[in-house]
Design goal:
By secondary structure, the chain is of the alpha+beta class. About 35% of the residues lie in helices and about 25% in strands. The chain has 11 helices and 17 strands. The protein starts with a helix and ends in a 6-residue tail after the last helix. The structure holds zinc ion.
Length: about 475
């Protein structure tokens, strides 16, 4: 990856402003190590067996459960009374309309600011269909199935509002610390077809990010009460018809077993082109979950960076450009070579073309969010973000950056320029999965990086004041 001039510019900008950050922290006397935190959890396993989200290959609804699905909330308050709300969930992803609906209620009921709310999904492929995302990949739903999805969505939304309220009402003094570990089961799925046989020929190609990101919340007697942890890899170990949080679900269960009374909150990083490989069996999902949990435990048992009690946040939606729709001829070639869901997408596109529908030339709502929790920066992106962004952003903004994707609005994949140019699933075909008519156009990477660097520079320097 060659982006020297571009990266040099941001490095220059960042280091230019760095001294201001130090001054800001020094002249803020009320900043100390005591925070307030409240944590709560609620089951979101659907009350009925219904269609599962994520795979086109399933041909029937859920018919069992490995373990419950959860919504978890961590409310944080800094020394000046600024309050944030992190919601993590065992679902495939929040669509924009679902996100708007939940956020509007959180803002109204708990007087939170939008920029202070993160709605994160683990991207488990063993949860329910919860919104219109990926509707092309499933067989068409009948009226009773549509009703089921609608009812479950209301239940899901209500559980989030409840759990957020319970987190706020349990706010109590805590200390926050952060650190990183490593787990190596994520494999670049564009470059490797890893299976059980690959064990005997273990060449792994392509970039992967194996960093395990950890934020620990400890009470006044230094007992951990919550742990927030992230890993950059698809939650796609399992495709059976049983509810589960996939490997992140097993990881959370493991941590909660190891530390009784603790609530663990998983978030997905920039792992859109990563799979847990080899995969497909329950013991493998359990193994990866345990590997991740042990990596988190290692971080918790070693010295971590204690975070000053100070919150700065930023949230913007930016416009990303889309290519025009394919012509009829191109669509025909997709039908010939495609699966059932390809055909459904093509039919829909042809209908739209025939009726003279307008195709938007951009997606104007791409969410970019940044939180500065004391000395820890967290960058939060929407969509399924490929791993290249981890390496580029760490180069520009430092290795201790925490990176979350699959948050606030999962509208489709977010390829880097490299992946967009190469095409394939993450660069092209995944856009059809999400029902979009075109692909992103070159320039997407720079637009996103510009906005992230702008926000992080501002929040690190305390320019965005409450
Ligand atoms: Zn995905």
């Amino acid at each position: 990856m060659k982006r020297p001039l571009f990266i040099q510019f941001f490095l220059f900008l960042y280091f230019l402003l760095l001294p201001l950050q130090a001054q800001e922290l020094k002249r803020t006397p009320e900043v100390n190590e005591w925070w307030k935190a409240g944590v709560a959890r609620a089951v979101i396993t659907p009350q009925e067996y219904m269609w599962m989200a994520g795979f086109a290959s399933r041909d029937k609804p859920a018919e069992g459960k490995l373990h419950d699905l959860w919504a978890k909330a961590l409310a944080l308050e800094d020394a000046r009374g600024n309050r944030t709300m992190l919601i993590t969930t065992d679902i495939l992803g929040f669509s924009r309309d679902l996100s708007l609906s939940v956020c509007n209620r959180l803002v109204k009921e708990y007087h939170l600011e939008r920029k202070n709310i993160i709605l994160s999904s683990s991207h488990t492929h063993s949860g329910p269909v919860i919104n219109s995302n990926l509707s092309h990949v499933y067989p068409p739903f009948d009226e009773s199935q549509k009703k089921q999805i609608e009812n479950n969505r209301s239940y899901f939304e209500d559980q989030i509002i409840t759990v957020a309220g319970r987190a706020i009402s349990s706010l109590a003094p805590v200390r926050l610390s952060s650190g990183v570990g490593i787990a190596r089961f994520a494999v670049n799925r564009r470059e490797n077809k890893w299976d059980d046989e690959s064990l005997y020929n273990p060449n792994v190609n392509g970039p992967s990010d194996h960093v395990v990101q950890v934020i620990k919340v400890s009470d006044q007697s230094d007992q951990p009460i919550a742990i927030v942890f992230g890993y950059s890899c698809h939650a796609t170990c399992l495709s059976i018809n049983k509810w589960s949080g996939d490997y992140p679900g097993f990881a959370q269960i493991e941590l909660e077993k190891t530390y009784p009374g603790l609530t663990s909150l998983f978030f997905a990083g920039f792992g859109a082109d990563q799979n847990p490989l080899p995969r497909g069996r329950i013991p493998q999902a359990r193994q990866y979950g345990k590997e991740l949990a042990i990596a988190v435990e290692k971080v918790m048992e070693e010295p971590m960076k204690v975070l000053s009690s100070s919150i700065q946040t930023s949230y913007e939606e930016i416009e990303l450009d889309l290519s025009p729709p394919p012509g009829n001829e191109e669509l025909d070639s997709v039908i010939i070579n495609g699966a059932d869901w390809h055909k459904r997408w093509v039919e829909k596109m042809k209908e739209k073309l025939a009726s003279g529908d307008e195709f938007p030339d951009s997606y104007p709502y791409y969410p970019v969010q940044s939180w500065q929790l004391g000395e820890q920066t967290l960058v939060v992106l929407g969509g399924e973000v490929v791993v290249d962004y981890s390496f580029i952003l760490r180069k520009i903004l430092g290795n201790d950056l925490m990176l979350m994707a699959y948050a606030n609005d999962v509208m489709t994949y977010i390829p880097s320029e490299r992946v967009l140019k190469e095409g394939g699933y993450e660069g092209e075909e995944s856009m059809w999965v999400y029902g979009l008519h075109g692909t992103w156009i070159p320039g997407i990477e720079e637009k996103i990086l510009n906005e992230v660097v702008r926000q992080v520079t501002l929040i690190r320097n305390g320019v965005l004041k409450y």
